[in-house]
Write a structure and sequence with these properties.
- The complex is a heterodimer of chains A (about 200) and B (about 325).
- Chain A is mainly α and about 200 residues long.
- Chain A has a domain of about 100 residues: Orthogonal Bundle (Cytochrome Bc1 Complex, Chain D, domain 2).
- Chain A is built from 6 helices and no strands.
- The longest helix of chain A is centred in the N-terminal third of the chain and has 26 residues.
- Chain A is elongated, with a radius of gyration of 25 Å.
- Chain B is an alpha+beta fold and about 325 residues long.
- Chain B is built from 8 helices and 12 strands.
- In chain B, the strands form 3 sheets. Chain B has a 5-stranded mixed β-sheet with strand order 3-2-1-5-8.
- In chain B, helix 5 packs across helix 8.
- The chains are: A mainly alpha (about 200), B alpha+beta (about 325).
Chain lengths: ~200, ~325
């Protein structure tokens, strides 16, 4: 009986199978690792009237020896689904009524590098929960902490503080600015002190 | 009849093959015709196959016999012509049914606007006088025997409106107004469902089309146009305070109160509806409580957040919501 050997010899056939198995294994592992980014956790925290955060600092200055405290990360900083939910809520809860699509108007702009009350996730979270003088209402007890974290992540994506593959890439309606995905990290505004005052 | 009994009754007839309206009957007849012809063709093909397999074979005729060649050509031509004819027949019938389904409706048609949201249906009864607009959710009341023109819009992604026993499907596309007319022959409750995958809770995006007798429809609409009842007891007054002071007010509207957000379903006449959460649960006090406290266990991914309320506040809120007839 004629034996057809497409792989030349039996040994090389075994090697081909081994490398094929390796490829399948690697593909599976990589695919499964990719799943992690889009984890959607729906069982969030209920809203509460008070902030759920430990005391947040807006300045590093303090009496006594300096205490090192790393910035706390919001739960949706790495989650594209959370950021896109934040974008929807940003418009639905009328953040856009004052901050517009990040350019600011009645409220300060969110797409630049100027942060009156801090740019870290916990600062923005606090700002939304507690409100700020001169117009920012307090949303504590009105929006669930989970949804505030989503809005926080979206607000940070506007000035390019999130990874580009996490920031949202599409709008539900007509585009008024470039996508958050395309936003470069905002450059610090050089100075708010008038040059005449700086010289002295 | 209890609400759950009513729901199970609806489920039984939730089929295209159980038409209850002129359009659904047209579609059903088209389906029947295609089914019948397909069955006949299938049986003929199987019979031909069996005949070809088991027929007694005589001595083999030469391949080049011109008579054999000619008869084969004739047979194949007839079969091809028949196939083309049948398919063209289907096409013409199909287009004719489509034309009838999409023909214009007269001035007598009732206009209703249906807006798809993730994952519920907003229903608006508009009027030339804005004061007379009525908004409800997930339940479309229509007068039986009268054509209804639906304006179909979407707020976020593509949904599809499909009550199989009374109408065809029609997509709700963001940025494009679609329309559909439907008519129910007899008063009754017809279940519908979103028929275009639209996210996590697509499966739990149901709705009811409730066909009323014309007089009871008119009185229903008049009641829907009213503002919500003012709470009269201490408990319901407390419930209204809870509603206005908590997360509810961020998304829901109750006319006659400061709550006016249009993100979630309008709750002005919540107690008059049969289901909550877009046809997911019968509208009972227990279900409502579960839905308010932890909606994510019922519809994971829904925009409604979990709410932690003091038990007394929750009872007051439930009493208030149940009073919104």
């Amino acid at each position: 009986m004629a034996f057809n050997r497409p792989f030349g010899s039996f040994a090389s056939l075994r090697m081909t199978i081994a490398s094929l198995r390796m490829t399948i294994f690697a593909t599976t592992v990589l695919t499964l690792v990719g799943c992690q980014r889009e984890e959607r956790n729906f069982q969030g925290m209920p809203p509460s009237a008070t902030s759920t955060m430990p005391a947040t600092r807006q300045t590093g200055l303090q009496p006594g020896p300096p205490v090192r405290s790393g910035p706390m990360n919001g739960p949706y900083e790495q989650n594209a689904y959370g950021v896109s939910q934040g974008k929807t809520l940003y418009n639905q809860f009328n953040c856009s009524g004052c901050h517009f699509q990040g350019g600011g108007g009645i409220g300060p702009p969110l797409m630049d590098d100027q942060w009156v009350y801090g740019s870290s996730p916990e600062n923005i979270f606090e700002t939304i929960v507690e409100g700020r003088p001169n117009g920012m209402p307090s949303f504590g007890g009105k929006i669930s902490p989970d949804q505030i974290w989503q809005i926080t992540a979206y607000v940070r994506s506007m000035s390019g503080l999130l990874r580009k593959d996490v920031a949202t890439g599409r709008n539900d309606d007509m585009q008024v600015r470039s996508q958050e995905q395309a936003a470069d990290k905002a450059k610090p505004v050089q100075s708010v002190i008038p040059p005449s005052a700086e010289r002295q | 009849m209890t609400a759950s009994g009513m729901l199970s009754l609806i489920q039984q007839s939730h089929s295209v093959l159980n038409p209850s309206s002129p359009q659904a009957r047209l579609i059903d007849r088209l389906w029947d015709a295609m089914y019948l012809v397909s069955v006949i063709v299938f049986l003929l093909v199987v019979a031909a196959l069996l005949w070809g397999t088991f027929r007694r074979r005589g001595p083999e005729a030469p391949e080049t016999d011109p008579g054999r060649e000619r008869s084969l050509t004739t047979a194949v031509s007839i079969a091809t012509a028949l196939t083309v004819l049948i398919l063209f027949g289907f096409l013409i019938y199909d287009v004719a049914v489509g034309r009838q389904l999409t023909r214009g409706f007269g001035k007598e048609a009732l206009q209703i606007r249906v807006i798809g949201h993730q994952w519920w249906w907003e229903v608006q009864y508009r009027d030339s006088i804005p004061k007379n607009w009525a908004t409800t959710a997930n339940e479309i009341h229509i007068p039986a025997g009268r054509p209804v023109a639906l304006e179909l819009l979407s707020n976020d992604v593509i949904h599809s409106f499909w009550p199989p026993t009374i109408s065809q499907k029609r997509d709700l596309i963001p940025g494009k107004d679609n329309s559909l007319w439907l008519q129910a022959d007899t008063p009754g409750v017809y279940r519908g469902q979103c028929a275009e995958y639209c996210g996590n809770q697509h499966a739990k995006m149901g709705f009811l089309v409730i066909a009323d007798r014309p007089d009871s429809f008119a009185s229903w609409l008049a009641r829907q146009r009213d503002t919500a009842l003012t709470p009269t007891t201490a408990l319901t007054r407390r419930g209204q305070e809870v509603f206005l002071a908590s997360t509810c007010v961020m998304c829901h509207a109750i006319s006659g109160t400061p709550a006016g957000s249009r993100i979630g379903p309008d709750l002005t006449h919540l107690a008059s509806r049969q289901t909550i959460a877009a046809g997911t649960l019968p509208n009972t006090r227990g279900n409502l409580a579960g839905w308010i406290v932890n909606p994510q266990s019922i519809k994971p991914g829904t925009r409604m957040p979990p709410n932690q309320l003091d038990p007394n506040d929750l009872q007051a809120l439930l009493a208030y919501l149940e009073s919104l007839k």
